């Protein structure tokens, strides 16, 4: 692992593409890469997570952002990504900056083996002073299998490489306590608990898939992983170093508490739900008290199609998510074991085991600073007969 200071920089579509004609803003790209090249020279490891491929490709598929559907956006991403990377490469070459492209999907970030492969690739790029440019692979992503926005993707990347800072550049200076268009809106310079500020962040930009709310989600994920988040305006001249040197206004989201283990961090920062278990309120209380895992006798209902090693979201009977943990069995095995409590496990699933469905050692109890996820309603739920 490199001992250099690691910084993840996230750039939104509104900074990269002109909102009227959906063409590249070369002035911003030039200012950004000039700044990143200088920071790299000063000894920092930089990762750039970049939106923009969909916005830049919409002209080629004949659509405006407000009318484009999922298939239009997938096609636009396939058209726009080469344009975006070509621009990055051309400008980077002016500053002797080497860049590499990495396209990822939500499955890449959630599955442990792929997660480690991506991490190892980025670390090798660092060793060779190459700037990784990461984007979600929108050309193959679907509505149900998307990271959803590159803000949270950047937080996952920051978690992955154990970054020191996540810098999110956007079209505003930072976070306000309400809509900044309101006359009495107050700028927030520093945040200790991101979850307290979610209600004031509801708007989205014309080009991006998220707004300040997704930036707060990203900051929450980063906080729990021990990464400081900075939200600042994406100005043209020295957009990153001017923030690092405290030369202009921005919002700083501080690291909260003691950083958990890498496993616990990976469990807490989820982008999609692989599967869920519902347990009784009594069992849920035992889990929260760190006294037990989830046995086959505890399962009231199962949701989702999951495999061994997936992360399950555990809910109580009131629909509150209380924990997340690694499952020792597939959804089919779990359903069979829970439905046939009168039979030995080996007779039900074909092999002998003493494992819980989710072991206590592989459970993360959600604290107040973790954002809970609602169980997906579209998946079929299997209720276990009493």
UniProtKB/TrEMBL annotation:
Residues 275-358 form the PUA domain. One of its GO terms (biological process) is L-proline biosynthetic process. GO terms for molecular function: ATP binding; glutamate 5-kinase activity; RNA binding. Substrate binds at residues 51, 138, 150. Pathway: Amino-acid biosynthesis; L-proline biosynthesis; L-glutamate 5-semialdehyde from L-glutamate: step 1/2. Its EC number is 2.7.2.11. Keywords: Amino-acid biosynthesis, ATP-binding, Cytoplasm, Kinase, Nucleotide-binding, Proline biosynthesis, Transferase. Its main location: cytoplasm. ATP binds at residues 10, 209-215. The keyword Transferase applies. Gene3D superfamilies: Acetylglutamate kinase-like, PUA domain. Catalyzes the transfer of a phosphate group to glutamate to form L-glutamate 5-phosphate. Belongs to the glutamate 5-kinase family. This is Glutamate 5-kinase. It comes from Sulfitobacter undariae.
């Amino acid at each position: 692992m490199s001992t250099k200071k690691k910084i993840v920089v996230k750039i939104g579509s509104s900074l990269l593409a002109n909102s009227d004609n959906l063409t590249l803003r070369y002035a911003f790209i030039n200012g950004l890469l000039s700044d990143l090249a200088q920071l790299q020279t000063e000894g920092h490891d930089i990762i750039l997570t970049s939106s923009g491929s969909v916005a830049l490709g919409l002209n080629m598929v004949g659509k405006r952002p407000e009318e484009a559907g999922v298939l239009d956006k997938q096609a636009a991403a396939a058209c726009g990504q080469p344009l975006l990377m070509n621009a990055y490469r051309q400008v980077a070459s002016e500053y002797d900056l080497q860049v590499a492209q990495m396209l990822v999907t939500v499955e890449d970030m959630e599955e442990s083996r792929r997660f480690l492969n991506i991490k190892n690739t980025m670390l090798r790029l660092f060793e060779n002073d190459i700037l990784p440019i990461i984007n979600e692979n929108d050309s193959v992503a679907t509505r149900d299998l998307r990271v959803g926005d590159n803000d949270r993707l950047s937080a996952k990347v920051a978690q992955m490489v154990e970054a020191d800072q996540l810098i999110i550049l956007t079209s505003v200076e930072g976070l306000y306590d309400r809509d900044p268009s309101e006359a009495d809106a107050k700028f927030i310079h520093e945040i200790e608990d991101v979850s307290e500020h979610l209600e004031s962040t509801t708007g989205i930009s014309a080009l991006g898939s998220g707004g300040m709310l997704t930036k707060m989600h990203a900051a929450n994920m980063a906080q729990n992983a021990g990464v400081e988040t900075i939200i600042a305006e994406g100005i043209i001249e020295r957009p990153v170093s001017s923030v690092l040197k405290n030369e202009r206004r921005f919002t700083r989201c501080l690291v909260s508490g003691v950083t958990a283990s890498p496993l616990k961090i990976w469990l807490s920062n989820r982008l999609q739900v692989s599967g869920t278990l519902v347990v009784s309120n009594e069992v849920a209380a035992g889990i929260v008290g760190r006294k037990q895992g989830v046995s086959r006798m505890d399962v009231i209902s199962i949701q989702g199609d999951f495999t061994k090693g997936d992360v399950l979201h555990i809910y109580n009977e009131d629909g509150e998510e209380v924990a997340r943990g690694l499952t020792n069995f597939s959804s089919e095995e779990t359903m069979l074991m829970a439905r046939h409590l009168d039979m030995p496990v080996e007779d039900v699933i074909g092999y002998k085991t003493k494992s819980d469905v989710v072991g206590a050692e592989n459970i993360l109890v959600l604290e107040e600073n973790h954002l809970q996820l609602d169980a997906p309603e579209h998946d079929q739920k299997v209720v276990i007969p009493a």
